[in-house]
Amino acid sequence: MMVPIFAVLLLALVAAWMGRQTAAIACLVVCLLLSIGLFLFEVYSPEYGFRMPWIQTELDGSGALPRGLA
Amino acid sequence: MNIASPRPLAALNYLYLLLMLLVIAAILTAATAMQYIGGELPCPLCLLQRVGLFGVCFGIIATFRFGEQGRNTGLSLLFAIFLLVVSVRQSLLDIYPRPGHAYIGSAVFGIHMPVWCVLIALSLLIAYAIKLALLDLREARAFTLAEFPTLARAARAVTAYVVLLCTINLVSVIVQCGFDACHTTGYRLLQSAH
Question: Between 1.10.760, 1.20.1550, 1.25.40, 1.10.10, what CATH number should domain B6-166 receive?
């Protein structure tokens, strides 16, 4: 998946350089859509989904806020 | 010379964009150098951050080629936001050390690459915000880069360099990933079959 992304990105840059605006923008939009798709695929976990439970915080259950936050 | 008159304003705008392109090219050069000299293979999210940086370059190069248009600025901003989202997510993935998760690569000035990318993406967004807020380009849009020969030569040189960098990255991605998922264990096409 990464190869097509860089391939259309290079095509977009070359097309812009050669003055083909419509082709350049079309390639760049395809590149962005592929990149978003790959990003979502890479960060999705079968266990956690898109959540990041390792950075979630919770109160300790005592109900008392730490000194300075009360 | 009145800087608020259209011609100097257009020159200032192109110079500003050229400096932004130079900074991004330097960052991409550093990343590529660390890959080849330091032997630090980029992870998939690292490669997507490079895509974000090249996308911002595209908007600037398109402005050089087709003149100042809102569309080009918009594309650059979209890729700057993409860079910010990817780098923030990667920073949060590795922020809490656990098995299989740690910041990839060596730290530069004590900061790892995804955290640098957060700062770079924010800097790019701020740079565009300052440009849009301070440079009123309504009348300056009529001036193309070709009307400033020195700037045009410099822009062509940096553009060619960015295209070369993208070509190197494409070849590198083909060798590292083949047509499959990317891994940081080695260059897939250079590994022996057995």
Answer: 1.20.1550
